[in-house]
Design goal:
two-stranded antiparallel sheet; 247 residues; single chain
Amino acid sequence: MEQWDSLCPGGLRFCWDERAHKPGTDSFLLGSFPPLRPGLRVCDLGSGTGLLGLLLLQRQRELQITGVEIQPHAAVLSDMAAAENALGDRLRTLRGDLRQIRELLPAGSFDLCVSNPPYFSDGSGATAPIPSRRTARSETDCTLSDLCRAAAYLLRWGSAFCLVHRPERLCDLLCALRENGLEPKRLRMVESRPEAAPSLLLLEARRGGKPGLAIGPPLCLTDASGMPSAEYAAAYFRTPEQKENTP
């Protein structure tokens, strides 16, 4: 069943349902990670229901975002969200397989690529019973190499690819990026609480970038008192007053 929610009070509205990948903290954290400026051309690879594009547009309205999504139902929900928010001129979704990206979009046509990709290699992790969830969760339709190859093709020289992933796939991710001419430049691990083992990572790579990886301080979701951290609150567009009232 389709469900609607708002990114913040008075903010953009997004749509999702049980058949598509549910909105999660990983998308919100990734939405707050890339540096943005007006006029950027952004491609969301594996865009699902369009949530990540809406998160970026909530931060910077003057973007042009193109999503590429293989699941027709998710793409329909993305189109519905674009219409609901009067963003038809700024958020569009192409139905297609990013493994055939050359048939969908021209080379070097984007300033930024983003992705919240499947986390598990095919055959590892629990198998989702619903096909749409399985596609979102496991690399059945798109491997890390497929994803990085598509991003490298789409990006102009020197532009960035930002994505969220699991720490246990870091070596696979770094190898796939470099193999496709994308140099890892900025990394942050995400911890549920201070000094906990990382549960996610945020990474920025650049097409044709020089070697040199900057590792930032961990992004903690809660502070020492157990309350949501300032960065977590900012990712969810929460004011300090809203943060204090968060259960």
